[in-house]
Amino acid sequence: MKALLAATLQSGDYVGFTFFIGSMAMLAATVFFFLEMKSVDEKWRTSLLVSGLITFIAAVHYYYMRDYWIQNGTSPTEFRYIDWILTVPLMCVEFYLILKAFGAKIGLLWKMIAYSLWMLVTGYLGETVFRDSSAIWGAISTLGYLGIFYEVWFGSAKQLSKNSNDPILQRAFNTLAWFILVGWAIYPIGYMAIETDGILSGVLSPSSLDIIYNIGDAINKIGFGLVIYSLAVSKTASPAKA
Hints:
Layout: H1 2-5, H2 14-36, H3 45-72, H4 77-99, H5 106-129, H6 134-153, H7 156-163, H8 167-181, H9 186-194, H10 206-237
Helix pairs in contact: 2-3, 2-10, 3-4, 3-10, 4-5, 5-6, 6-8, 8-10, 9-10
């Protein structure tokens, strides 16, 4: 523990730099989301609270991931998956929270959480425990992602958004859906590059992957929260709508 606390960034360590920036950015976003809870209508405060929890959890893990990288020079895979297994389900919860006023049932919440846990647990097994069959586990993990993708692009969540007839909600929902499609694409790409027999094996170095993951995490998690914040502020300014 003392060694971890004594860890310092070295000049030219761009991976460590992105870990540090990620930690600070997530912490700053957390403070912002928590402070702004008082400026939105009460019905939207839980959504902002969850956004703040997502970035807070990530900030703590990024602090430890930075020190792990500095001490070992290897990707902190376990720390990263611990972070994801807490934050990704919370990001899925946001869809339920913003759609709750428009008829979302508790079943949508548990379905989204189940898809995310399936995706992360099987992905972790393929990346660590069963590396020799990582491609198979990657395919199994993708089923969870496809479940989330289907719900927000074609499934019940999408239908609730369309049926709301609320342009503010629809814009926010569609932006979050694009985060799922485009922003989350970096994770399967990284997985395929890590696989020993993956399509992209050897294309990217482990350090490059960590930089991509770090930047992607910051954009996805903070960006997700900012969309929720924008929705909450807009709806607070137009209280006549749900």
